[in-house]
Amino acid sequence: RIYFQIAGASLLGVGVLLKIKNNDIQNFIPDKYYLGLPPLLLIIIGSVIFITATFGCCGAVKENTCMLTTFAIILLTLLIIQVAIGVYAFLMVGDTQDLKTSVKQLVEKTFNDYNNTKVAKEEFDVLQEFLHCCGVSEPNDWRWPGGRLPESCCASKQNCTIISNDCYRQGCAASSYRWFKNGLDLLGILAIAIAVIEIVGAIFALCLSSSIKNQIRREAYA
C-alpha cells in the first residue's frame, strides 16, 4: 500500500506545481478549456488516493475485510471518475485548430495592448520569460526602431535586439499552444499510470479480502 501513498503524494505535488506554473499563462488560454481544472483535479485525486491508501494499509494490517473491500470500491470509483474526465477533456480539445486560433487571438490581444496598459505589458513580459518566446509569431512582430525588443525577449534581459544571440526565436502563440497540449499529454500519461495502479490495487485488495474470509471459514470449521 506504500506505493499508493507515494502515487497519491506525487499526484498532489504535481497538481500544486501545475497550479503555480499555470498562473503565468492562464490569461492566454481560452476560459472554456478550464486551465485551472486539471491541477485542482490532481490535487483532489492525489489527496483521496493518499488517504485511501492509509485506509487500505489499516485494513491489511488488521485483516479487516470490510476496510479492504471499501478500499477497492473507492479505487474503482476513482478509476471511473478519471475515465469520465479523460473523455471530457478529449472532447473539449478535440478541435486542435480551434484551440490554436483561440490561443493566438488572446496572445495577439495582449500583444496589441502592450504599449497601452501596464497590465498587458506585465502579462506579456511574464509570458515571454516563462515560455522563452518573443512576439506573437516571431520577434519581428515588435517592429521597434533599430530592431529593439523588450528585455523579456532575451535570456540576458539586457540590450535585447533582433540580432542578439540569446533572443528567443519562437513566437508566443505557438509556445502557449504547445505548453497547453504538453500539459494535457502529461495528464494523460499520469491518468493511465494511476489507472493501472488503481486496477491492480483493487484486485489485490479484493483477493486479500477473499483470502481472509476463507481463512476465517477454515478456522471456524477446524
UniProtKB/TrEMBL annotation:
Q: One Pfam family name from the record? A: Tetraspanin
Q: Which UniProt keywords apply?
A: Disulfide bond, Membrane, Transmembrane, Transmembrane helix
Q: Which GO terms describe its cellular component?
A: plasma membrane
- Looking at the keywords, is rRNA-binding present? no
Per UniProt, what is the membrane topology? Multi-pass membrane protein
Query: Where would you find this protein in the cell?
Result: Membrane
Q: List the disulfide bonds.
A: C133-C167, C134-C153
Main location group? membrane
Q: Per its UniProt record, what Gene3D superfamilies does this chain match?
A: Tetraspanin
**SUPFAM superfamilies linked to this entry:** Tetraspanin
Tell me which domain of life the UniProt entry assigns to the organism this sequence originates from: Eukaryota
Membrane-spanning regions, if any?
Answer: 40-61, 68-91, 186-208
Family the UniProt entry places it in? Belongs to the tetraspanin (TM4SF) family.
Q: What is this protein called?
A: Tetraspanin
Q: Which organism is it from?
A: Callosobruchus maculatus
